[in-house]
């Protein structure tokens, strides 16, 4: 089913662009309410122990201080049931100030509320706490010998991996580790809470207005309709704004107790400490092959972190049974409780970490086999999903390998370590496979065709910067023929028809079918009006009418715009509602996106400087609804992947488990000057088995595979196999 | 403690400061520990300028003070007596978007948009600064105080180089800002 499109699949400037470029976009941190107070949390300075006493006298006497909340001065609330199925999942089930126990450094011990930001901050710094510190705080899984508890639910077995490994002539057994990472989204977590007549209005920088609405309702014992969560613009969230955090609960409670709106914006230090992180991981990979390079077994045993106040499982082994054809696979995972802020999903959660280990191991296996690493992967490209035994809906990984390898010049690679030089620099060329699952969620949407010729589309999802406003406008434009500038898209309010989280790269494939259904329902309504008595097409069969360029058209060529029809009938609008959910397609196919990264690093052996110089990538992501925003997503993911590969590490002091580098100077992210040449290609193979627009989502896949491609390139340049991210200069200097 | 780098101040007493913001004279009476960024956002309602770190590390708060790009989180408002301040709200003119804004729109030089005001203020200043060479490496270096976690750097660079066609450098060699 190949259809010609006029707007979908074409580069379209963001419909919210001008708001973002002129300072008019209303992010959560920008909102102010009348008589608003400012909240500022007080973080615990120990990671493990008990709060013994809080000395508040000095702080309470300071100018502008209205109240200080803490264990002992905080209302009784209910924990959220924390259910994905019921959409009330939270980031920490423990409520703020629940007891005196301290589980990690930075945990809030108090919330100061004052008339101004400056007053709240000054008073928060004047709060004195006494602690009883317990021994044995664990700052990182990577400082611990222990792996924690085994997770039975994450165990997967196919064939006889142990037997195959035992018998195989070529074996690899290596352990890889990744430091905890910080999301570092530019807009910190922020809440503005306002109670009006026992109704709660929360402005929250969130990736899920509906989830936050439901979680708030559970915690404060309210009917869902009495909670409104608003998030029109989000200064991004890379997974850490999916589910509600304690700062939001504390702020809402403070606003209720004080009878005034309260706004809390986490200072960056606290945002990094207790606003989520990608957990550190340790992964043992065992691969076995025959002498011809056939993969005989994959063992992927991993351990990840969670905190003591919440169970978060980063699904680190989930892609390994599906990435390559292999008969014998065994996956296991352990979970260790550590004394730092609670981990949560971070862009490409689980699979990004898992693919790092698997793709480094594949490179090492290729070297052991004396085989080209690309060739090893090509031989195991599978037409079916080996984990499910179902055919892939649409898979063009081979085309990704071909195209990216050709553009990169892979055929010119000399496999001898350190053999490719340019001036004083040694070039390293490495590659890796990239992949991310394709999912869809239930979704509702509403569309209004209005008498003034404009169209409004509404959905209770949100745009975190991926371009959701724009792809919805494109969809409406495509189906109605109305120009983009006459289409208004409303998102980011929990009172709108329930839409999905902006997570899992699922928003596009989830929302567009619902919006399309709502558009068609509105058009049907319009036809009913137009064919009724006194209508422009009175007596005509609605089935014979079509909508083109915003006008109804009959078979004789008679036209009437929807604006004229509505005006003639004195109607302000006709409306359509659309509800969609994934169907039976998952019984027939397995859905996943694929890609390939080829990376060139340059290493100056004199000073051991390593830089990524070039990244060439191709992706099979179905159809890109908007090639401009889709490409931007992938390029941005590659930028983040360079950080993961070379720069990023949350450093917890091994002595007391406190986070050392909780700021933008000491936790290093990729900046302008780090930018390599980036060449991204999006193949255009619409996946119509997945949804009518053929889109599989593009927000995360670009990150998977970047770090291992870098690590493999680093080995090719330096001969050093660094199995521990990030690959910093000290590791390259070590013998 | 976690907030070790922040100063402790109770801010007793208030001070009056006169500024020109986006061409409009304005007088503010505020405690001396209010930084320019918070004065613009909380007291003047100019929320286009963003706070990403409050420590001069991310560049989201970049504004122009007398034409120079500055991290507004590192200036106390009371230090700006008599200064001309331009924020993102003052970047466009009656004739439309500033060439940098127009180029950001056309090149999709943003995603979430939160760092964007700071990116554009730095870009607008560097295009007028003849001391900064016009090659890509020089622009990347000059822009490296503005972090973009969405990673839209490639498009930001191409937008700046495109906008260059419409902006003529004003500050010349050796001239102090």
SS-based structural class of chain B? alpha+beta
Low-confidence stretches of chain B: 1-11, 173-177
Q: How would you spell out the order of helices and strands of chain B?
A: EEHEEEHHHH
Q: In which order are the strands of the major sheet of chain B placed?
A: 2-1-5-3-4
Strand content of chain A: 25-35%
User: Total number of helical segments of chain A?
Assistant: 18
CATH class descriptor name of the largest domain in chain A = Alpha Beta
Largest sheet of chain B: 5 strands, mixed
- Terminal Cα span of chain B: 37 Å
CATH architecture classification name of the largest domain in chain A: 2-Layer Sandwich
- Return the structural class of chain A: alpha+beta
Written account of the structure:
The complex is a heterodimer of chains A (about 725) and B (about 180). Chain A is of the alpha+beta class. In chain A, helix 12 (about 470-480) packs parallel to helix 13 (about 505-530) and helix 16 (about 625-645) crosses helix 17 (about 705-720). Chain A starts with 16 loop residues before the first helix and ends with a helix. Chain B folds into 2 domains: about 15-90, Beta-grasp domain (Ubiquitin-like (UB roll), Roll), CATH 3.10.20.30; about 100-165, DNA polymerase, domain 1. In chain B, helix 2 packs across helix 5. The model of chain B is unreliable at about 1-10 and about 175 (pLDDT under 50). Chain B: Keywords: 2Fe-2S, Iron, Iron-sulfur, Metal-binding, Oxidoreductase. Chain B: One of its GO terms (molecular function) is metal ion binding.
């Amino acid at each position: 089913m190949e259809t010609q499109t006029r707007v979908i699949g074409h580069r379209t400037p963001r419909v919210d662009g001008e708001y973002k470029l002129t300072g008019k976009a209303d992010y959560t941190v920008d909102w102010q309410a009348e008589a608003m107070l400012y909240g500022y949390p007080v973080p615990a300075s120990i990671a493990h122990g008990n709060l013994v006493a809080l000395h508040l006298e000095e702080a309470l006497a300071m100018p502008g201080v209205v109240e200080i909340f803490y264990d002992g001065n905080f209302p009784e609330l209910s924990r959220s049931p924390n259910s994905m199925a019921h959409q009330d999942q939270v980031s920490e089930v423990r409520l703020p100030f629940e007891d005196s126990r301290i589980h990690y450094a930075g945990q809030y011990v108090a919330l100061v509320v004052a008339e101004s930001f400056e007053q709240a901050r000054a008073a928060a710094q004047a709060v004195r706490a006494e602690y009883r510190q317990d021994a044995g705080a664990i700052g990182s899984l990577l400082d611990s010998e222990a792996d924690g508890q085994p997770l039975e639910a994450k165990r997967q077995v196919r064939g006889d991996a142990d037997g195959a490994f035992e018998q195989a002539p070529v074996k690899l057994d290596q352990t890889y580790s990744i430091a905890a990472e910080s999301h570092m989204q530019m807009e910190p977590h922020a809440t503005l809470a306002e109670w009006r007549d026992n109704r709660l209005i929360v402005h929250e920088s969130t990736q899920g207005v509906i989830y936050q609405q439901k979680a708030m309702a559970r915690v404060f014992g309210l009917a869902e309709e009495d909670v409104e969560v608003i998030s029109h613009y989000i200064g991004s969230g890379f997974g850490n704004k999916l589910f509600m955090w304690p700062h939001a609960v504390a702020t809402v409670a403070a606003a209720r107790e004080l009878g005034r709106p309260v706004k809390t914006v986490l200072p960056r230090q606290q945002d990094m400490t207790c606003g989520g992180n990608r957990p550190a991981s340790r992964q043992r990979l065992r691969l076995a092959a025959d002498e011809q390079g056939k993969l005989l077994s994959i063992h992927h045993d991993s351990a990840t972190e969670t905190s003591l106040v919440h169970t978060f499982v980063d699904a680190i082994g989930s892609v390994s049974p599906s990435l390559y054809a292999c008969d014998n696979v065994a996956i296991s995972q352990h979970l260790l409780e550590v004394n730092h802020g609670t981990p949560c999903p971070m862009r490409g959660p689980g699979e990004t970490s898992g693919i790092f280990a698997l793709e480094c191991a594949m490179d090492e296996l290729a070297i052991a086999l004396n085989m080209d690493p690309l060739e090893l992967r090509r031989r195991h490209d599978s037409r079916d999903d080996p984990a499910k035994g179902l055919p892939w809906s649409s898979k063009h990984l081979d085309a990704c390998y071909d195209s990216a390898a050709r553009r990169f010049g892979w055929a010119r690679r000399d496999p001898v370590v350190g053999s490719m030089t340019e001036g004083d620099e040694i070039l390293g060329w490495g590659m890796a496979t990239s992949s991310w699952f394709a999912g869809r969620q239930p979704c509702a949407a509403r569309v209004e065709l209005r008498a003034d010729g404009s169209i409004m589309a509404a959905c209770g999802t949100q745009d975190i910067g991926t371009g959701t406003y724009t792809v919805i406008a494109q969809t409406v434009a495509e189906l109605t023929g109305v120009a983009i500038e006459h289409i208004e898209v409303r998102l980011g309010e929990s009172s709108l028809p329930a839409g999905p989280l902006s997570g899992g790269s699922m928003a596009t494939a989830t929302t567009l079918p619902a919006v399309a259904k709502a558009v068609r329902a509105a058009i049907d309504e319009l036809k009913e009006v137009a064919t009724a008595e006194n209508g422009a097409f009175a007596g005509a069969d609605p089935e014979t009418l079509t909508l083109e360029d915003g006008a109804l058209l009959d078979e004789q060529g008679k036209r009437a715009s929807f604006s004229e029809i509505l005006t003639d009938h004195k109607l302000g609008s006709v409306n359509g509602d659309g509800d969609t959910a994934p169907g039976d397609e998952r019984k027939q196919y397995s859905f996943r996106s694929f890609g390939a990264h080829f990376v060139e690093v340059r290493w100056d052996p004199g000073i051991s400087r390593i830089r990524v110089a070039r990244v060439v990538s191709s992706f099979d992501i179905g159809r890109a609804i908007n090639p401009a925003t889709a490409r931007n997503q992938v390029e941005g993911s590659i930028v983040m992947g360079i950080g993961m590969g070379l720069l990023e590490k949350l450093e917890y002091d091994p002595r007391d488990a406190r986070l050392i580098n909780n700021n933008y100077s000491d936790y290093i992210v990729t900046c302008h000057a780090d930018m390599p040449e980036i060449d991204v290609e999006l193949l255009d193979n619409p996946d119509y088995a997945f949804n009518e627009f053929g889109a599989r989502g593009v927000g995360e896949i670009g990150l998977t595979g970047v770090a291992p491609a870098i690590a493999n390139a680093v080995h090719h340049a330096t001969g050093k196999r660094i199995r521990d991210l990030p690959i910093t200069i000290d590791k390259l200097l070590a013998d | 403690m976690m907030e070790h780098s922040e100063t402790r101040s109770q801010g007793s007493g208030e001070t009056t400061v006169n500024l020109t913001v986006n061409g409009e004279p304005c007088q503010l009476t505020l405690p001396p520990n209010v930084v320019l960024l918070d004065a613009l956002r909380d007291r003047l309602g100019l929320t286009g300028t963003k706070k990403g770190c409050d420590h001069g590390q991310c560049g989201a708060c970049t504004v122009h003070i007398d034409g120079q790009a500055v991290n507004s989180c590192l200036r106390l408002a009371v230090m700006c007596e008599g200064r001309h301040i331009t924020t993102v709200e003052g970047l466009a003119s009656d004739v439309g978007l500033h060439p940098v804004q127009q180029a950001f729109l056309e090149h999709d030089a943003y995603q979430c948009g939160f760092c964007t005001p700071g990116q554009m203020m730095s870009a607008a200043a560097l295009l007028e600064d003849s001391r900064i060479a016009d090659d890509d490496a020089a622009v990347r270096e000059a822009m490296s105080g503005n972090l973009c976690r969405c990673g839209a750097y490639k498009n930001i660079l191409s937008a700046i180089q495109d906008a260059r066609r419409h902006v003529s450098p004003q500050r010349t060699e050796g001239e102090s800002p």
